[in-house]
Amino acid sequence: MVRRREMVAGMATLSLLSLGGGFATTALAQEATLDGDTIPTAQGDITVHPVDHASLLLGYGDQTIYIDPVGGAERYAGLPAATAILITHGHGDHFDVPTLEAIAGDAPIITNQDVFDKLPEALRAQATAMANGDDGDINGIALSAVPAHNTTEGRMRYHPVGVGNGYLLTLGDKVVYVAGDTEPTPEMLAMTGIAVAFLPMNLPYTMTPEQAAEAINTFKPAIVYPYHYGESDLSVLETAIGADTELRLRNWYPNGG
């Protein structure tokens, strides 16, 4: 079930949007293990596994959530099978049909309408399109789609308003924010209680490190991971971020970018 929030003058009203079928819970016995940073929750650890650029995996209990998987099946060899897949938008560094066909199995796929419309029929059958403001769940994990778009004049053509999604996932007692390709939006800046945030920062497509630092100091996630950063100089973050947030700089480009 997905619930759509209609935003009117800053107020949210909920209406039920039936999608039929819902999401099937997939509890897979997996021999492969996921390595990476661990973040404790009251119901078990979250594991953060960077893949490359904007692609990452989140492990939680028996769930392995693939986010924007691209790069072909070989990039995911030896990793646990996907139990769910989230796709933020249709650019080629976030969405690749051959990769999905190779790794998706029967995992439910959540994406935006643009990507949903581009999926081949077999994948579309296991996919759901969420719009900005929709709430739902995937395999019992609460999920919200939030706006992801440019805000600076001259960059709007890269990520127009209302097309791309960021995602909020509630894992145990922690809320994880995967921003997708975006600059700071009013919705981002108004967030509270974010345990982990993945923020992009490369020009001209997303935000600058300076914009990211200002946003971080506004919505104050407990932990922030810069990702999708290309050749951006991230050193500004080390001095610009306040004490409320732990900065975790990780190598998101293991293959050299």
UniProtKB/TrEMBL annotation:
Gene3D superfamilies: Ribonuclease Z/Hydroxyacylglutathione hydrolase-like
SUPFAM superfamilies from the UniProt entry: Metallo-hydrolase/oxidoreductase
SMART domains the UniProt entry points to: Lactamase_B
Keyword ATP-binding part of the UniProt annotation: no
Signal sequence, renumbered to the chain: 1-29
Keyword Signal: yes
Keywords assigned by UniProt, alphabetized: Signal
Protein name as catalogued: MBL fold metallo-hydrolase
UniProt organism field: Devosia litorisediminis
